Amino acid sequence: MLKNLEEKDMRTKITLACTECKQRNYNTTKDKKTHPDRMEIKKYCRFCRTHTVHKETK
User: Pseudo-torsion of CA 12, 58, 51, 49, nearest 10°?
Assistant: First the structure.
């Protein structure tokens, strides 16, 4: 059980924002060791009503 707690501490919470309309649509976690730089993912934006690139914000 202690191992599971240590694994969760390695993941950090991030927010993804649409590059088109700048709305913050998604909250997720990422592993800092495997992805040290900011993430970019193509996801659906309900405000633009299309799939757009979402970037990690602070």
Answer: 120
